[in-house]
Amino acid sequence: MTTHYQIVIIGAGTAGIMTAAQLKKKDKNLSIAIIDPSEKHYYQPAWTLVGAGTFDFKKTERKTIDLIPKGVKWVKDYATTFDHDNKIVNTKSSGSLEYDYLVVAPGLVMAPELIEGLPEALEKGVACSNYIDPEFTWEKIKNFKGGNAVFTQPTTPIKCGGAPQKIAYLAADYFRKNKLKDKSNVVFATPGSVIFGVKPIKESLMEVIGHYGIHFKPYYAPIKIDSEKKIIYFKHTSPEENMCVINEDNELGEIASGEEIIEIPFDLLHIAPPQTAPKFIQESKLVNDAGWLDVDHHSMQHKKYPFIFGLGDVAALPTAKTGAAIRKQVPVVVDHLMSLIAQNKLGQMSYNGYSSCPLVTGYGKMILAEFDYASNFTPDPKLKRMLVFNSDKEHWRLWMLKKYGLPYLYWNKMMKGKQV
Ligand SMILES: Cc1cc2nc3c(=O)[nH]c(=O)nc-3n(C[C@H](O)[C@H](O)[C@H](O)COP(=O)(O)OP(=O)(O)OC[C@H]3O[C@@H](n4cnc5c(N)ncnc54)[C@H](O)[C@@H]3O)c2cc1C
């Protein structure tokens, strides 16, 4: 059976719900369907705080049905394949949906299998991850008695690129408060060359790292985990000499085998798993060579199929994959869709790559990184109303924004299609 809608949206996550809600606000008569099999919708940004024992996981979860905007049809199913010539999207068991315009927003998926031994380490509870089970991260942090606490970042794009380091700062703060600082080494290992790509933010974060005495390991790409021996292996990615330099005191007990492979024994391991676009997207004609949804960086219109738009984590946009980015992407996509429907031409709005990363640097402290495609630091002028004049520095008011303000805005404004 095929049913026709003016707009079909794949995914009822942050991007899908916001797009549907804003479209309905523009014209309540639009016929819209959202396809999503999940009964639950999560406010994932608070998972960092859940992992540090300072936010209730249950408060990050709502029923999808309660978020579907009035007048929008929820097809509780998986989108599976596409027939672009006939403007059809097929579902697992609810038949086909015909559309005039398609919005693709199914997010991304965790791909732990891309690191040898990681699926097993997660299964056995040897590694924890805020991306998968933040309550288990808190168990691990709470029960840590000392030794090496290793926090990693993968080589693939990930959602909220700052999340892997935020939990390292919170853990370091927790260990300090609980008199474990002298007995522990907190390691933050990333394949990147710097802690953050925006200059003033990078400078502040290097101070945070210094303050906690965190072992910062750039050029460290995680490649293998040995759950039995509790060792993580990294490939050193420095483009210059490809040489890894281990400190003389070697507090961490690092071992370099050859010039490129380094092992670090761990007592606590937090992993940000590699992440990819969902399989049905990767197998479609909609992706670029790297397997992400191939859309124009400014209009988010698909590069080959002008009647398709894509946004959120699945999109191949060279900026950080965050809910904050989606907040700025949605009005642009909605503007183009409304203009195409009314006048058969694109609208006026353009996305500049805005994204933001609330870098929680300890309990009660936060730096707010806001930036665009060119990695310019672009703080929101509205922060001044909160008496925050230097959001590139640690601030208690920013922590309050993260813990209370942003969840409120998310559920009560963003999910309801209101501009924030
Ligand atoms: C630990 C962590 C910390 C974060 N911190 C922040 C932060 O501080 N600030 C911030 O702005 N962002 C943060 N984020 C990122 C933010 O949550 C995501 O960028 C955002 O939720 C992505 O929205 P989305 O709509 O693209 O995907 P999602 O919200 O993940 O939704 C995707 C939806 O698509 C559905 N779907 C998947 N496959 C199919 C299919 N085949 N058919 C139909 N539906 C399908 C899924 O069920 C899901 O409901 C964080 C994320 C994590 C995990």
Describe this structure in words.
The protein is an alpha/beta fold and 420 residues long. It folds into two domains: 2-108 and 277-353, FAD/NAD(P)-binding domain (3-Layer(bba) Sandwich); 111-270, FAD/NAD(P)-binding domain. Helices cover 25% and strands 24% of the residues. The protein has nine helices and 21 strands. Strands 1, 2, 5, 6, 7, 8 and 19 form a seven-stranded mixed β-sheet that branches. A hairpin with a 4-residue loop joins strand 13 (220-226) and strand 14 (231-236). Helix 1 runs parallel beside helix 8. The longest helix has 21 residues, at 323-343. The chain is globular and about 70 Å long. The protein starts with a strand and ends in an 8-residue tail after the last helix. Flavin-adenine dinucleotide binds next to helix 1, helix 2 and helix 8.
Descriptors:
single chain, 420 residues, 2 domains, alpha/beta, 7-stranded mixed β-sheet, FAD/NAD(P)-binding domain, 25% helix
